[in-house]
Amino acid sequence: MNKIVIKLSLGALFLGMSSLSFGQNQEDVDKKVLNWYNGGGAGMQTEKAYKKLKKRKTTTVIVAIIDSGIDIEHKDLQGKIWVNTDEIPGNGIDDDNNGYIDDVHGWNFLGNADGKNANDMRLEMTRIYAQLSAKENLTDEEAKLLEEVKGKVEGERKDYEGYLSQMDMLISMMKSVPQMVAKAIGKEDYTMKDLKKWKAEGDMAQKKQLAMAMKSGQLTEEMLNEQKEQIQGMMDTHLNKDFNGREVVGDNPDDFSDVKYGNNDVEGPDALHGTHVGGIVGAIRGNELGGDGVATDVLLMSIRAVPNGDEFDKDIALAIRYAVDNGAQVINMSFGKAYSPHQKEVYEAFKYASDKGVLLVHAAGNDAKDIDTEPNFPTYKYSFQDDKLPLFLTIGSSTKDKKKDLPSSFSNYGQYGVDVFAPGSEIYNSIPQSDYKILQGTSMASPMVAGVAAMLKSYFPDFTMLEIKEVMLKSATSYVGKEKTHPESKEMVDFANLSVTGSVINVYSAAKMLLAMEKERAEK
Fold it and tell me: Are residues 211 and 314 both part of a single domain?
């Protein structure tokens, strides 16, 4: 899970998960937002790349989506879902002897053999807090860690209690704002135009801003009540050391030899995040439904391992190995957390994938922090690693604004840790029940890159995934030397300071580079 993003602006409180939501109906979506990520400007030039490659044939590439689950019946994902052809559906037998029964479209590591699914989980720091609190005779290192996580958990609980109080105050204020504004303007049925003309001063300036947010529909009592419910749910689960959502699964999450768990329900109870991520990679292109996927000849393998809360290291390690062993060539990982108790086991799974030539793509995270100094696990380089794995990419989020606000305000960054940026703000794509929504986060930027890698591999199958990865980085649009708004400090900085490349992914440039390399090889 990527941490919740919270912003307070002049008394108005707006919340969102790792993906912030802004709307749903396609007719309500600004044309400037729809598919912007595949277009020109600050987009990835995807459409231009397809025109360049239109005479070429493709081969199908499998992309594993390790996430909250995918609605495999979504109308915009039909024909895009991976099928394990060696498995006979519904016979209760592990036909292909891969250790998973009836894994037709992937596997769910958050369920049990009876078909029950877990969803809400504690944050990793809360799990550590609970574990160490119950332990006697702590080492000095454990005592220090306990003090650290206890402070963070209790600190966040206190913050959230404050947000709930502020939201109650805001809801109360909203009830009186229309009457107060009408009296000040001298017009009861005022319009947005009236509000913009109104030169409010002092305390009324805040009332004006609230009135404009309410009039535009950006702020409603229903929205705030939903967010209150969300925060309370987080306090009851994510930050509650006595809550244990793992009991449903029935395994020991600290025992990596205990692998006989899970089920084949690859959608699960809440597949919004995973369906949106999967749609970015491979939603049907050109059908005028929602946003287009980046890759056209692709199959999505759904691996459910990311709950509402922090993922477990064991689930991620097993999910990586499952994806590799079942033919995935690209693995998308739109999740992250601040603590990782089983780092070596996760690293070994990543190394297994990298050694097999499988590209791992990970979201940088949404805390507007430097992951070179504050890791977002799983990380690009663990303390015991000598060098980065050759097939591991970490992705920051960019906006459709090529000017000063190119980096998304929430995006993590890192001159060594973030490889490249990709579109992650205002992304309209698929959600469950054949619907669509605008979400944003590095969770959206990561599948952009996974989709680009899959698209290029499908058109250039003779190139290794390592070669394709290197081409994507070399051909990305460079903003080195261009000053942009720093996500954390909000000061103007050279975009080169925010990632290894100082660039944003460009599909067209990558395709051109691969065509040139292909021609050069043919001439030798």
Answer: no
Predicted TM-score of the model (pTM): 0.92
Inter-CA distances, 396 with 27, 351, 362, 399, 505, Å: 29, 22, 9, 10, 10
3-class DSSP state of 183: helix
- Give the residue from 206, 236, 266 where a domain finishes: 236
Partners of 303 in the β-ladder: 66, 107
Residue 352: phi, psi to the nearest 5? Answer: -60, -45
**Are residues 46 and 507 in contact, defined by beta-carbon separation less than 8 angstroms?**
yes
**Sign of the dihedral defined by the CA atoms of residues 2, 8, 9, 15, in that order:** positive
Q: 422 in a domain, yes or no? A: yes
In one letter, which amino acid is 175? K
What domain range is 499 assigned to?
A: 19-119+251-523
Burial of 347 (0-12, 13-18, 19+ CB in 10 A): buried
DSSP string, 61-97: EEEEEEES---TT-GGGTT-B---TTS-TTSSS-TT-
Residue 80 contacts residue 300 (beta carbons within 8 Å): yes
CB distance 74 to 281 below 8 Å: no
The number of CA neighbours under 13 Å toward the Cβ of 168 is 8
- Domain boundary, last residue among 181, 210, 236: 236
What residue has token string 């970490």? Answer: 394
Residues forming a β-bridge with 212: none
Structure tokens at 117: 């699914």
CATH assignment of the domain containing 56: 3.40.50.200
pLDDT in tens, 64-79: 999 999 999 999 999 9
The tens digit of pLDDT for each residue in 264-276 reads: 999 999 999 999 9
* Residues 245 and 119 sit within 8 Å (Cβ to Cβ): yes
Please check whether residues 339 and 398 belong to one and the same domain.
yes
Distances (CA, A) of 408 to 30, 117, 382: 19, 34, 26
> Residue 312 has which token pair?
């477990």
Instruction: Give per-residue burial for 416-445: e unless 16+ CB within 10 Å, then b.
Output: ebbbbbbbbbbbbbbbbebbbbbbbbbbbb
**Beta strands at 298-304 and 106-108: parallel, antiparallel or unpaired:** parallel
Model confidence pLDDT, tens digit, residues 316-362: 999 999 999 999 999 999 999 999 999 999 999 999 999 999 999 99
Shared domain check, 256 and 209: no
